[in-house]
Amino acid sequence: MPDVGDLLFIGIMHILIFGRPDLMFQDASLGWHLVTGQWIFDHHTIPKVDLFSYTFPDKAWVAYEWMFDLFAYILTRLGGLNLLAVFIATTIALLFTRVYDRARRDGGPLGATVPIAIIGIFASAIHWLARPHVITLVCIYIFLMKLEDFQRGTISSTKLYLWLSLPMLVWVNCHPAFGLGMVLIGIYFVSNIVLLVRSKSDTESIRRRLKQIFIAGILVALVTLVNPYGIELYRYIIDYLHGSSVLAETDEFKSPIFHGDNIHVICLEILMALYLVGLAITRKRLSLPYFATMMLFTHMSLSAVRNIPLFSIAVIPALGLLFSSTRMTESTRSFGEIFPAIDKPWRRISTAFNQFAEQEMLCKMRIIPIAYVMFVAVAAFCGGSLGGSKVLSSGFSPSTMPTATLTYIQEHKLPFDRGFNNDNWGGLIRYKLGMRVFIDDRADFYGEEFYTKYGSIVRTKPGWRNLLDNMKIDWILMPKDAVLSAALKNEEDWQIACEDPGSYLFTRKTGTP
């Protein structure tokens, strides 16, 4: 029998594959990931210098997401963007099914856990993209749940070592946020020191747990060195994160805006409110390290929208535990006694619902999700069509991404070293046209000085025309709603050579500098 987790899985998959097939491809940076993966596939080595820009063609580059890039390219080679979409959607759907199952297994009532999981899913959808950060989402869940299981004494230290070190081997080669795994281990280590200081008994078991968590931390730290750059990867990431004003200007690193009708942020508010209510009415407590982790993820979600999924992944199981036993439980059980007129029907409904909830806990075969994934995977391998009918159409949206303008650039052979482009479209241009670009969204590569010049142009700050002239830019590809697009329309030296629903292609008029 299918359970609610199966329905959540199918719902997420259906939205991402059929309802919004362009949702995961709203970020064009996937383009440079695929180009990197192709280069690794063709040359059997990891690139050491830039592959994308004509502005820094020989500059050293650290491809720290190489494993995801290679895997993503292989998937697209086998089944196009449709197969990549199936993989990303399956990963997200499976993750939140596991999150739901964890909340139920920790005692979360069915009537509360289902809406909480749905709210968490909608909140996290703000950052569902076909990018390597999906590996971070999965690994954060594994690290947090396995550390919590070890804290509760439900898994051995050997299993803890395996559950942390093996995922880290993938994580460190797929996404630079692998350091969060070390942070979680540190939180559990420090929290147990606090527990040891405060404990008046059972200190021996806490000491033993501290020792084992410390060993886990050392083991995981050693695993993080199993990457093409070794210890230098740490230095590179620290340099990027430390004092960079580029991150502050990146949308996904900005704080969520709580006014307006953004459904993702509204769901975040609801989750935070439920968390506070759960802490207030629960008869159970979160462990000290889990509580400290929730404080960290709450801060992170309020600091950057890209971290909202991390908060959702952590808070749903926490709410399952908090609502498993509350001060309201007794009054809920005596509801029929408070209203005698509905006592019998209330008891019948309650009995039937409780029986369904108990049965639902036993239905974990996942037959329907497996069949669903097999169906869409076969469709992807068959070019998105089955039986002569188009089934899948995942990819970049023509309403927000350049299409006709890219064709114009290619057909008219516009010189690549005279072009200027939106940074997020750099990877897409490189992927679609095979040409180097002015810039892409690898902020860590280009540095603050270059990004400052780019920002001055796209925001039309004083001197932006001189910058374009000095760089000898002859054509510009920008979104239709960009500030620069509006300014160029009023410039005598520039004209619209081509447009499509998502972009303008501007070229210099003949005879202008």
Explain how this protein is built:
The chain folds into 2 domains: 4-327, no CATH class; 404-508, no CATH class. The chain is built from 22 helices and 6 strands. The protein has helices at residues 4-19, 30-43, 66-105, 110-124, 133-152, 157-171, 179-198, 203-223, 232-241, 245-248, 263-281, 288-303, 308-322, 329-333, 335-338, 343-360, 367-381, 404-411, 426-433, 443-458, 464-470, 483-489; strands spanning 385-386, 389-390, 419-421, 475-479, 494-499, 503-508. The strands form 2 sheets. A 4-stranded mixed beta sheet has the order 3-4-6-5. Strands 1-2 form a two-stranded antiparallel sheet.
Question: How would you summarize what this structure contains?
Answer:
By secondary structure, this protein is mostly helical.
Largest sheet: 4 strands, mixed
Number of domains: 2
Rg over CA atoms, rounded to whole Å, is 26 Å
User: Helices and strands, in N-to-C order?
Assistant: HHHHHHHHHHHHHHHHHEEHEHHHEHEE
Q: Termini distance?
A: 71 Å
Summed up, the helix count is 22
Task: Give descriptors for this structure.
513 residues, mainly alpha, 4-stranded mixed β-sheet, two-stranded antiparallel ribbon, globular
Task: Show the helix and strand layout.
Elements (H helix, E strand, L loop, with lengths): L3 H16 L10 H14 L22 H40 L4 H15 L8 H20 L4 H15 L7 H20 L4 H21 L8 H10 L3 H4 L14 H19 L6 H16 L4 H15 L6 H5 L1 H4 L4 H18 L6 H15 L3 E2 L2 E2 L13 H8 L7 E3 L4 H8 L9 H16 L5 H7 L4 E5 L3 H7 L4 E6 L3 E6 L5
